[in-house]
Amino acid sequence: MRLNLMITTILKEKERVDRMLEKYQEELKKLPKGTISEKKAGQSTYFYLKYRDGKKVISRYIPQKDAEDVRKQVEKRRHIETMIRSLQEERAIAEQALEGHI
């Protein structure tokens, strides 16, 4: 009886983790990847979003008025990527605990 309760609890937790992973993966699709770099030319500062596309490094210009917003989006992406790694570890632990019980 007690084992069934544990199995049920672990299954529910795994389902919760799977839902969260799916939600975070969808959120990642909306956020820019890469890093923001600044280049100074004379008195002006130019902002670029740099990211990899296969082996190529893409550098996309960002207007100064949008730079802070894009920077926040990149930071949010990093946070979500960290959350995804953590959730994947949790899922692996749950799967290991359920091994042989399902």
From TrEMBL:
It holds the Pfam family DUF6788. InterPro entries: DUF6788. Residues 12-72 form the DUF6788 domain. This is DUF6788 domain-containing protein. The lineage of its organism: Bacteria, Bacillati, Bacillota, Clostridia, Eubacteriales.
